[in-house]
Amino acid sequence: MELTELPEWEHPAPGVARLRLPGWDCTAGLVRGEGAALLVDPGGGLAQGEEVRRAAERLLGDGAHVTHLALTHPHFDHVLGAPAFEVPVYAAMGAEALLGTESGRAGLREDAVRHGLDPAEARRSAALLR
Hints:
alpha/beta; Metallo-beta-lactamase, Chain A; six-stranded mixed β-sheet; about 35% helix; globular
């Protein structure tokens, strides 16, 4: 399946795109297959995740949506955008210890704020992680 050409996305291979996200040098990836689209690393906050979701949907075209989400590692700039997607999430081993516990989410919040994310956005994003 082909992807629409949009200037903000790089296309390293057919059906594959990547988007450099502002702020913390994170790159979101998108892989499109037959009837499915996997997004990798949705960014560092709910607002950024929503922007990535909209950008991915524009790139996919034809009313297609992201169907799966992959988190490469549990740093705030790679996972706090995940709540913007209501799809199955796949994550690196050990990620559940951070994403699925209050102490883990607190650590992600603190790290995000330390790196410049608005405290209210960090709280809101971390609270929605599952």
